[in-house]
Amino acid sequence: MGGSSTRNVSVLDGRPRTFRIQPVCNTGRSEDCHRHSANGRIRRIGIASVLAPLLALAFTSFAFQRRARADDAWINLGVSEIVVIPDPQHYAIYGYVAITLPVALEWQQLYLIPGLGFEYAPEVERGGLVGYLTLERSLSEKVAGDFVVTLAHDQPGLSLDEAVYSLGVGLGVSITLGSVVLSPSLSVYRVVDAPSWSLAPTLNLSRAL
């Protein structure tokens, strides 16, 4: 998750935070997911559109480092690939932006991190809001372990009546690199009102505001 003096932000003193959004396969039908995955050109456009903001955030963060505090708000950018299970099939790549606010629990180096964000997948033209809660524990000066619970809302365009709601849980690690935090994670999701499951490998980059 500049000033007159620069220093590296650590998990312990900087309270960095990450965010990850993992929506599910929205139709619950593997044939639909297979059809979307065949559109390679759109997928490449989607990947480029979500990786560009990540690279921009990384550049500006290393150029303007500063010390972060536990009560700082954090900006998060990232990508998630949605893979339908139990027969693994690519569904979509979602890009997202989110704000998180770490709260130090002052017990066993634990932090509670609520967050809210917006995600979108260009290749399937779906998106929505995501709320989540992360429990983070510092493992070393620059590494932390994450347990994440997420509630994702996903819909095509402005069609709220076609929205899908999914609940997910996942594990990840947060690695402090200068003034940014890089966080790979993996979550499993289930549609709230249907027996549809998916996996969401995610890569998140965050920086204190």
Protein described:
- The protein has 209 residues and is an alpha+beta fold.
- The longest helix has 24 residues, at 40-63.
- It has 3 helices and 9 strands, in the order H-H-H-E-E-E-E-E-E-E-E-E.
- It is globular and about 40 Å long.
- Strands 1-2-4-5-6-7-8-9 form an 8-stranded antiparallel beta barrel.
- A hairpin with a 5-residue loop joins strand 8 and strand 9.
- The chain has one domain (11-208): Porin (Beta Barrel), CATH 2.40.160.
Would you kindly provide a brief summary of this structure?
With 209 residues, the protein is α+β, with helices and mostly antiparallel strands. The chain has a single domain (11-208), classed as Porin, CATH 2.40.160. The chain has helices spanning 11-14, 30-37, 40-63; strands spanning 74-85, 89-100, 103-104, 110-121, 126-138, 143-156, 164-177, 180-191, 197-208.
Offer a few descriptive terms.
disordered N terminus, Porin, eight-stranded antiparallel β-barrel, 209 residues
Main sheet characteristics: 8 strands, antiparallel, barrel
Number of helices: 3
As a percent range, the share of strand residues is: over 45%
Strand line-up across the major sheet: 1-2-4-5-6-7-8-9
Q: Please tally the β strands and state the result.
A: 9
Provide the succession of SSEs.
Answer: HHHEEEEEEEEE
What's the CATH architecture name? Answer: Beta Barrel
CATH class type: Mainly Beta
Gap between N and C termini: 9 Å
**Any idea how many domains?**
1
CATH topology-level name: Porin
Give the class from helix and strand content and strand pairing: alpha+beta
Helix content: 10-25%
Low-confidence stretches: 1-68
Morphology call:
globular
